[in-house]
Amino acid sequence: MHIAVAGNIGAGKTTVAKLLAKHYGWTPHFEDVDDNPYLNDFYEDMQRWSFNLQVYFLNSRFNQIIEIRNTGKPVIQDRTIYEDAYIFAPNLHSMGLMTTRDFDNYFSLFQLMAKLVQAPDLLIYLRANVPTLVQQIQKRGRKYENTIRLDYLTRLNERYEAWVSNYNLGKLLIVDVDNTDFANNPEDLGMIVNKIDAELHGLF
After folding, report:
1. In CA terms, which of 2, 71, 83, 154 is 20 to 30 Å from 30?
2. Whole-prediction pTM value?
3. Which residues of the chain have pLDDT under 50?
C-alpha cells in the first residue's frame, strides 16, 4: 500500500508523514532535502538552476516510487512525482524562471516516467493558506528558504488547488491544516487518523 502526502512548501508534509508512519507502522519515505545539491543555488538564482533542480527531484522521486513498489510494505511518501510536474515546474515556466525549451524537455521526461509507475493508493493533500505556510517556514528555519517570496507561495497554492480539483489517479483525502497542530495536539492528529481510516477501509 502506497500513501502519499502532498502540499505546498511549509504545509507540514514531513511532520504528518512521520506521525502517521509511527501511528500505523508504515515505512516513511521523505523528500531528499538535506542532500539536494541544487536547493541553495536554486533559491539564490531560480532562473539559472530551475531546470537542474526539477530534473533532480524527478529522478529522485522516480527512484523512490520504484523502491516503494518493490518493498511490498505499506509506505507513506512525503510529496509525489506529480507535484513537480503539474505544480512546481509549470509555475517556474510561467514566471519566466524556466525556458520553454527546458520545460518541454522536462515534461517529456516526466510523461515517460509516469507511464512506468503507479499512482499512490491514497493521496493526502494538506491545504494551507499562505500565512500558515510562512509561519511554518519561519518556524523550521531553513536558511535557503528565507528568500521565498509570497507571490511564489501564492502561485503554488493556486496550482495545487487546480491540480487537486482534477485529481483522478486514486483516492484523495483533503485536510485543512490552518489552525491545527498535529505534532502537539492529539485531537488534531486523531481527526486526520479517523479520516484516513475511513478512506483505507475502501482500499481493501
Report:
1. 154
2. 0.89
3. none
